[in-house]
Every structure is written in C-alpha cells, then in structure tokens.
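Annotated sample (chain length 366).
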Amino acid sequence: MRASSDVVAPAAAPAPPPVPRRRSALPRRTDAPPSRPAARAVRPPVTASVAELSPPEHIAPSREPDGAARLLPGTRRYVGPWCFVEHHAGAGAGAEGASAALDTPAHPHTGLQLLTWVFAGAVEHRTSVAPNAVVRAGELSLLTAGRGASHGLADVSDAGTARAVRLAALLPPDALDASPSLEHHTELPVLAEGGVRLTVVVGTACGIDAPATTYRPLACAQLELAAGSHIALPVDREFEHGLLVDEGAITVEGTSAAATELVVVPLGRSYLRLTAGDAPARLLILGGPPLDDETVVWWGLAAPDHDGVAAARADWAAQRTRRARGADPAARFGRVDDGAAPATAPDLAGVRLRVPAPRGPARVTP
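Output written by the structure step:
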C-alpha cells in the first residue's frame, strides 16, 4: 500500500540519509480454525533455547500531575532508541485512574524524533516547523527536532476524550543537528487477517516499511487483537521490544500487562507469542537495537555532552524571555502559535550531566 503524506520542512541542507530497513515474515495466528492452513510453530533463535532467553520485564506507569501514564524514562531509560513513552487516556476517570485531557504547552527539543500517535479521537499538533495540524486516529505526526524545534499538543476531541501516546526516539550522533522537519502521514500500511490487524507506524514491521523518514533501525506498530486471540508475531531478533497496552490486556512470552502498562522483551527472539484477554486488545509495539550511543538526554534535549544540553537550555530560556517581552523569537527553537505561555525549563544550576555508559552494541551471534 502506498502511503499518502504531507511533508513540511524548511529549505535547508538535507539530513543524513535514512538507514536501510530489514524485512521479515508475516505474522501468524496460532488459533486459526481447522479450515485454514496450520500455523507454523513459534521458532526460537538458533543460538539459544527459549528457556535460556532473558525474561520480559513488566513496567507499571508513574502518574503525571495531569494523570498521564509515564513509562519511559522510569525504572529503565531506553527500549532500543526509544527514550520517552507517555500514554494519555483522555479526560475522566477509568481503569487507568483520574486523568485530564491532553494539553501540553510549547516546549523545546533537540536531537530527537517526536512521534504523536492517536488511538481514538483527535489531537492538534502545534509546531514551530509548520502550521498547526489536527492528528486523527490512525494518522502519524512525526517531528524531527534535530538542531532545535518546539511543539505543543492539545486534545480537540469532544469532551477531551482522545486516547494518544507521545513518543521520542534518539537520533544517531551524525543526525543530532539535522534540519527540523515535520511529516504528517494520513495513510499507513495495514495487515489484517481474522481477528488480527497490524498498522505499521514507523520503521519496519512484518516485512512492511512505513513511509516516515527514520535515521536508524527502529520499529513502531499498532496491533489490534480479537478477544482470546493467540499469535506468533515475527520480529527482528536483534531488537529490544516494548509493548504498550492501550486497551484490554495481553500476555506476551508469559508476562501479562493491562492498559497503560509496558512489557519489555530483550533481544534474541525471532517471534513474540501474544495472547489477548477476554476483551479485544489494542497495543503499540516499539523496537530497536540496544542503544550504543554516548548521548546525554535531559528534559527533551539531547546532545553529545552536558555543555550541549546546557547551551540548548540557555537558548530556550533566552528565546522564551524575548517572547514574553513581545519580540519575535525567530531563533533556534522557532515559535509555536498556540496563544499560551511556553514551558519553563527546569533548573540545571549545580548539576553536571554525565554521558551514560553504552549498553551495546549487543548482537545475536549467528
């Protein structure tokens, strides 16, 4: 399926080319009726038995003041290159607890790709790169911050009931200063069979490439399962994977998760065995190789070292002050047209950010 999209970017030198993506087999249901061909058994990696693989990690969210569920950063910092995962359940109270409608003021980013994905309802994405645009369920808004961009989000659904997730992935070192750009994709590749529906959002999943620009190997896909479904989902065995449940409940490789919870599966598996609970399930699957970058990430600002982050923070603080005085802040982070005061950066005085020790490159031995 060809994907239609609107891509907005300033006339600047092109960023480093996207990395090539790998392809894999299609997902297979393990609960197919007798009239269908028998599904292939789950195939473990050739280097280890299933018993020798590291078990999945279950992560419960921390709650933000507005009720949003923060999964990353938390008890762990990354899943592959993904460094930020926050789920918004919409206004009201439910199984996830009391929450407010998604409404984030303009704030800065460097060195990241910011993904806005809407499960249900609609969200307005306000950026310094392009005019404000409404993102509806099943559409992707992808902001590449690179050397500097700012954005904000607001629920524009009836009664503020949009269900959405905010994600960030770290750009590789040679793209940290890429030109800011925004992509809005209204059609994405979909695989559907029986009670299984897979939408490829970013990167590659099940042999299908999403149209959005990426700068390193990664994956993001929405998976919808009928109640009681069992599937063996083919995945890249050199990827870590995170499975964020939006609705319903799942069990993956023996570890269960409910709405707003995350299961992290270490690298080494060629398939993920998933089972939906008694109700239909909807989840987002993230993936990528374990991070081996020496990059500092703080408050949405990524740079090679402390000084780079501190300089970005100072630029935002100066720009925010000029805006408060009524001057046009045509500076590093641009301007967001939302009629509200931009966010204030946390204090960095007396803090020295350290470059984390690389966790990779981890590889599966053939």
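Annotation: The chain has one helix and 27 strands.
Annotation: Residues 22-288 form a domain with the Jelly Rolls fold (CATH 2.60.120.10).
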